[in-house]
Amino acid sequence: MSKCNSLDDVIYFCDGKKCCRYNEEAKSCIKSLLSETGLNKSISLEKMKCQGMCKSAPVFYIDSEKKYKKEVTKKKAKKIFDKYFIA
Fold first, then answer.
1. Which residue has better confidence, 86 or 22?
2. Cα distance between residue 23 and residue 65, in whole Å
């Protein structure tokens, strides 16, 4: 799997009714990791509308990989970050 290299990578998080209830820890974790690594200048964290995957909340989407990640906890957010954004 390729690592993200462009200057306009985006991590989307679902901001639908159910995901919104559960995504705060994962969002905060990813924001912190982006800041700590300096990648916040090249990777943004953006919200997206409901993706209809409410049973798998919270849902994140890695744009450069074209992959949805379901049931993202703080622990899973760290693994996703390491796998897709750390070379």
1. 22
2. 20
| Predicted local distance difference test score (pLDDT) of residue 87 | 63
Beta strands at 9-14 and 67-69: parallel, antiparallel or unpaired: unpaired
Q: What is the pLDDT of residues 21-31, one digit of tens each?
A: 999 999 999 99
CB atoms within 10 A of CB 71: 14
Give the separation between CA 43 and CA 38, rounded to whole angstroms: 9
Residue whose C-alpha is closest to residue 19's, from 69, 62, 61, 53: 53
Rounded CA-CA distance 22/41 in Å is: 26
| Strand ranges for 7-86 from DSSP E | 9-14, 43-48, 60-62, 67-69
Residue 16 burial class via C-beta count within 10 angstroms: exposed 0-12, middle 13-18, buried 19 and up:
buried
